[in-house]
Amino acid sequence: MSNLSEIIRREAAQRGVLSFARFMELALYCPVHGYYETKKDNPGRHGDFYTSVGVGELFGQLLAFQFAEWLEQLRIADGGLRIVEAGAHDGRLAKDILAWLQSNRPELLDQIEYWIIEPSARRQEWQGEILREFAPRVRWFAGFQSLLQARMCHSSPATRHPPLRGVIFSNELLDAMPVHRFGWDAAKKTWFEWGVAVDGEKFIWARIPDTLAPRSGERGAFENLPSSIFHPPSSLLDVLPAGYTIETCPAAEDWWREAAGILERGKLMTVDYGLTADELFSPGRLRGTLRAYFRHHASDDLLANVGEQDLTAHVNFSAIQAAGESAGLRTEIFSTQSQFLTQILEKASKDNSLGEWTSAQARQFQTLTHPEHLGRAFRVLVQSR
């Protein structure tokens, strides 16, 4: 039995039934033993899943062009512009963005710092290796709170407020945040939360009792039921089959609100695969959207191979959009990745910002935008202040 399995077993035994969100948090992010702590090359051909970054440098170049356009609109006399990437994986996307800016917008790059939100010291080290040539321009923070504390320490008393001008973005981050999993009890016409328990050497699914008290700092089970999802029309609830399953991700909504809170002027953007609240309810999605990925094969066996497989669920973009708007942001773009990148390419082509178009770039663009590859499954949400 692995060290990670034993850690989860002990906590599950202590609590009786562990929320799946906590199981997923430990499986992916447990210090030293979690999936993202031990697997440096989890994206890519030799990993467990593909990402847009793994297609080639074109994805980062297109984002860099768009970021440059946004940042030019914010440029101020004393500089102070930031690009903040959360969940930078191995740092390749940051490198592609910075390299394009260095070659094509050097004057703008002189006004920019690139900040990475990364709580893992190990992953910070991996990212630092790839970004060595840009080291003076890159800073790491464990989270938004540490970023704010650093800003406060270097600000005058007159300017100590959430002061960030620029672009905050993530690519395939929200889908890996821990989710709660709920099932529908058709007889009682109510939702219940699925948790994880221990049976011998195995982890098994178990209902979380309604009376189970949350741990300190956690939400209670039914506080995780956003009204936008769990109060659909009664006509729909009447036909939901017993055991119909759906996920919620309060962690993603909280993260988005926190990011919005530090943005004084600029854009908040995510690229991820997901659905709207209406789309989440589908007759063909009886078991929700949670999947495990191991060596590019999807699996419904979410409790197996702990720490060896990725766990991911579709982002509820309706909930994320609402979280941003409640924090005062305005929604500018909600589109497929194909639509978003195609519009950028049309603008970049006018001034030859991507250089002479090559066959390699054409292949990358097709993979990034084709509906059967990454173009339709991935969505882009951009909000602004």
Structural summary, described in words:
The protein is of the alpha/beta class. Helices cover 38% and strands 24% of the residues. The chain contains 16 helices and 16 strands. It has helices at residues 3-15, 20-29, 35-38, 52-55, 58-74, 92-104, 106-109, 121-130, 144-153, 227-230, 234-237, 250-262, 277-280, 317-326, 337-350, 359-369, and strands at residues 18-19, 81-86, 112-117, 138-141, 164-171, 180-185, 190-199, 202-207, 245-248, 263-275, 291-294, 297-299, 310-312, 315-316, 330-336, 378-384. The strands form three sheets. Strands 2, 3, 4, 5, 10, 14, 15 and 16 form an eight-stranded mixed beta sheet that branches. Strands 1, 6, 7, 8 and 9 form a five-stranded antiparallel beta sheet that branches. Strand 3, helix 8 (121-130) and strand 4 (138-141) form a beta-alpha-beta unit. The longest helix is centred in the first third of the chain and has 17 residues, at 58-74. The radius of gyration is 21 Å and the shape is globular. The termini are far apart. Mean pLDDT is 87; it is low at 156-161 and 211-222.
Give a summary of the structure in a few sentences:
The protein is an alpha/beta fold and 385 residues long.
List the helices and strands and how they pair.
Layout: H1 3-15, E1 18-19, H2 20-29, H3 35-38, H4 52-55, H5 58-74, E2 81-86, H6 92-104, H7 106-109, E3 112-117, H8 121-130, E4 138-141, H9 144-153, E5 164-171, E6 180-185, E7 190-199, E8 202-207, H10 227-230, H11 234-237, E9 245-248, H12 250-262, E10 263-275, H13 277-280, E11 291-294, E12 297-299, E13 310-312, E14 315-316, H14 317-326, E15 330-336, H15 337-350, H16 359-369, E16 378-384
Parallel strand pairs: 2-3, 2-5, 3-4, 5-10, 10-14
Antiparallel strand pairs: 1-7, 6-7, 6-9, 7-8, 10-16, 11-12, 11-13, 15-16
Helix pairs in contact: 5-6, 5-15, 12-14
